[in-house]
Amino acid sequence: MTLTSFGPANRIKRSAETHPLTWRLRDDGEAVWLDEYQAKNGYAAARKAFADMAQDDIVQTVKDAGLKGRGGAGFPTGVKWGLMPKDESINIRYLLCNADEMEPNTWKDRMLMEQLPHLLIEGMLISARALKTYRGYIFLRGEYTTAAKHLNRAVEEAKAAGLLGKNILGSGFDFELFVHTGAGRYICGEETALINSLEGRRANPRSKPPFPAAVGVWGKPTCVNNVETLCNVPAIIADGVDWYKSLAREGSEDMGTKLMGFSGKVKNPGLWELPFGVTARELFEDYAGGMRDGYKLKCWQPGGAGTGFLLPEHLDAQMYAGGIAKVGTRMGTGLAMAVDDSVNMVSLLRNMEQFFARESCGFCTPCRDGLPWSVKLLMAIEKGQGQPGDIETLLGLVGFLGPGKTFCAHAPGAVEPLGSAIKYFRPEFEAGIAPTSAAVPPLARPIVVGA
Predict the structure, then answer these.
(1) Where are the domains of the chain?
(2) How far is CA 219 from CA 8, 79, 93, 176, 210, in A?
(3) Which residue range or ranges hold the NADH-ubiquinone oxidoreductase 51kDa subunit iron-sulphur binding domain (predicted)?
(4) Is the Cβ–Cβ distance between 393 and 377 less than 8 Å?
(5) pLDDT of residue 441
């Protein structure tokens, strides 16, 4: 895993003033443990929050800073925190860190947990103080075994130093933190499915309302935040709202920095902390180095497999939610994927939809039956056995499975790349339609769900 410095030619050194998430990283890639973390001003923000700030002031500071969720949805963090009940008689509350990170092409949270585990713990400690939560869980993707080992060691270090447990920093505030490894389901990225899984239930999303802030883990008020989101909290508390907002590029409506990256056949695939508002072209050309020799950029996804495809001419879009929305899709996780000119889009989409169909929880009909249907049609088209009307049926499924049509956001994210691929590369899909004079009407084609 690569994390390159801030400058296009690696000339600019990471610093606390410009890289709140990554300035403490070691050059050798090893984890930063407690002594080194504290030597690099670690837990200073927590001490400030406990000694000098009222709990509501912490919430307001995060809200004023404009911090938004970094897991893909981009919901304002301070607003989410403000939904937690104010009733002091509710003394059992939970803070959950969503560390499931199952989105294909995305690995940013893994880097933070493996190399800066105490940054996440400090972010959760401050957040717990603000939200009056007495217990926290890091719900970790089961395959992240190194992250689990490092987080558990960091938790024990923090306990021994009096930074977790009873009467933290002499404040009278108690907070316990546990690392919980999941069983490996993409749907656990949805916060209520994560809660069900943590409780030992099937990982199905829950009906909302009630929202987790009212009825969450074991029926108690619960706040769920992403790893990268929580890792932003210490710097905001330590250095203030104005500084944090100043990090973003002009024109960006999102504040601070973001871990961004590029994968695929680029010369320098990697992960970088960059200001919101940097253009995708700068990310692609100056940091990722452009395509490898012998390959051309065909299209790209801005933030994981659940975001729509964009063309090379869209690279001038700014990397923030509104900037990517202007060119027709979502920023998602900010970890982009380059698709080279040797890739057949039908095969790529068939592979993607197989993944999404397999990872559906199966609760609602559009997702449970619609995604396998798209796979059947794509497999036929890939083999040159598609029938007239199949492309229209696929586009119909994109509509049937779109936002607001399913129980959660899994299916809309699954079909967004499909719709964009047909929009930009329809001839590749048409090439898989077999000529026939006796085509079976698309809606009458037999579909075997789950086959």
Answers:
(1) 34-245, 247-340, 345-444
(2) 49, 21, 10, 19, 10
(3) 346-391
(4) yes
(5) 52
